[in-house]
Design goal:
- The chain is an alpha/beta fold.
- It has a single domain, classed as 3-Layer(aba) Sandwich (Rossmann fold).
- It has eight helices and twelve strands.
- Keywords: ATP-binding, Nucleotide-binding.
- One of its GO terms (molecular function) is ATP binding.
Length: 252
């Protein structure tokens, strides 16, 4: 599904990704871990098409299509979803309004008919209930006044409504308490654990992987993947830390 080959990228002229390669097949969940400053969020932003993250070499394809040639909205329409570490607030725009516009914009880009108001509300209610969110919360402005856990659950509702092929989730576990972590982890499994879907989980901690079991775990350091393994690799990191692997915090 996703093929990244020798990807190089920089921010403000500073190289961050330095020859990163990764293959993610349909039906798989891949976790990416690594020290601070290793390039994890940069990878997410490059794949999502965030301005200011400049690709200087390599290639990325999604289902054979050149992802790097697409604008961000075209990547979304092609089935890519980017979950942010810090979801933004949008005052004056309700979650319901925002999500209906987003869903129908993607459907239009794919040549599909728009969802009626009634059909959309049924879909939104089902997804919200799966993430323990009320429709009253869904009618509030996007993320305004939400706790960290509520923002992440609202983002998972968004993912469920948009139903992407590939979800890239940047530290979705950040700011979650034990109960919210379970709810969000179960939501990821319910929405994305399908034969034609795939997930890249970017995380610092093994705890999320208790709820979303990865097929592969990769360690990113200095802008490239330096080690890959199964779920046991995340447990080893939890026990021993990056120092045991000879990896340092890139900001130290």
């Amino acid at each position: 599904m996703l093929e990244i080959n020798n990807l190089h990228a920089e921010v403000d002229g500073k190289p961050i990704l330095n020859g990163l390669s990764l293959s993610v097949n349909a039906g798989e969940v891949h976790a990416i871990m690594g020290p601070n400053g290793a390039g994890k969020s940069t990878l997410a932003y490059v794949l999502g098409g965030r301005p200011g993250y400049d690709v200087t070499g390599g290639s990325v394809t999604l289902d054979g299509a050149d992802l790097l040639e697409m604008e961000p909205h075209e990547r979304a329409a092609a089935g890519l979803f980017l979950g942010f570490q810090y979801p933004v607030e949008i005052p004056g725009v309700s979650n319901v309004q925002f999500l209906r516009e987003a869903a129908n914009a993607q459907r239009a880009a794919r040549g599909e008919p728009a969802l009626s108001g009634a059909d959309f509300l049924r879909l939104a209610k089902a997804q919200a209930e799966g993430l323990s969110m009320s429709m009253d919360m869904m009618k509030r402005p996007v993320n305004v006044g939400f706790s960290g856990g509520e923002k992440k659950r609202a983002e998972m509702v968004q993912m469920g409504i948009l139903d992407p092929k590939l979800a890239i989730l940047d530290e979705t576990d950040s700011g979650l308490d034990i109960d919210a972590l379970r709810i969000v982890g179960d939501g990821i499994e319910r929405i994305m654990r399908k034969p034609d879907r795939a997930v890249i989980l970017i995380t610092h901690y093994q705890r999320l992987l208790d709820h979303v079991r990865p097929d592969q775990v990769h360690i990113l350091s200095a802008g490239r993947i330096v080690r890959s393994g199964g779920p046991e690799l995340a447990h080893a990191l939890e026990r021993e830390g990056y120092a045991a692997l000879g990896l340092e915090d890139a900001r130290s």
